[in-house]
Amino acid sequence: MTDRELFNTYNKEVYRTCLYMLGNPMDAEDICQEVFIRAFRQDWQKIEYVRSWLLKIAVNQANSFLRKKQFSQTKQRMLEAFYQKETSSPVSKMIEDDETKTEFTQLLQKLPVKMRAAITLRYLNDLSLSEAAEVLNIPVGTVKSRLHKGLKLLYKEMKKEDGKHARCTREDRPSSSHHQQKEAKA
């Protein structure tokens, strides 16, 4: 396999990992390039599990980037660049899908970096528990723990968001007695 073949084979996966970790397409592109520059400078042909090795570099580079910038705020959309919309789906479904991706992105960004990394590798890159553990350089049990806690936090955040939406709609909606009073005055 040549350097070009390596890049073409793993570019999207490395970029997706960087994007999920960073939340910003421009930053993800920069880190993705750094990952492949590092890989090309090393003797990557001797690496047995190239995919896991590249993803490990990507996670480490992303974590390094986050530490340097003291990344603490929710960034903008993460998923738009990766999910190809079906041409046969109706416009309303595409809009709904976009809103769901945006909401998921925002919820994912609220998680601590370590949990976000575990969830990104396991569920968005379809790595096995052992592969995710290898990439993160932690025991499988720790991956399981981070996944469990991360999913639990995501669930709590989703419930909190649902509660906010429900309160807004109830408060914004005038009561029937309010309508009746307005009509009586008119």
- Annotated CATH homologous superfamily: PhyR, sigma-like (SL) domain
| Gyration radius over CA | 21 Å
Question: And the CATH topology?
Answer: Butyryl-CoA Dehydrogenase, subunit A, domain 3
Our count of domains comes out at: 1
Helix content: over 70%
Envelope shape: globular
Mind telling me the CATH class? Mainly Alpha
Q: Tell me what portion of residues adopts beta-strand conformation.
A: under 5%
Structural class: mainly alpha
Instruction: Give the low-pLDDT segments.
Output: 71-88, 168-186
- Which sheet architecture does the biggest sheet show? none
Any idea what the CATH architecture is?
Up-down Bundle
Number of strands: 0
Terminal-residue CA separation: 80 Å
**What is the averaged pLDDT score?**
76
By DSSP (H or I, 4+ residues per run), the number of helices equals 8
Please write the string of helix (H) and strand (E) elements: HHHHHHHH
What can be said about this structure in brief?
Helices cover 75% and strands 0% of the residues.
Structural commentary:
Helices cover 75% and strands 0% of the residues. By secondary structure, the protein is an all-alpha fold. Helix 2 crosses helix 3, helix 5 (113-124) packs across helix 6 (129-136) and helix 5 (113-124) crosses helix 7 (140-172). It starts with a helix and ends with a helix. Mean pLDDT is 76; it is low at 71-88 and 168-186.
Describe this protein with a few key phrases.
8 helices, mainly alpha, disordered C terminus, 186 residues, Butyryl-CoA Dehydrogenase, subunit A, domain 3
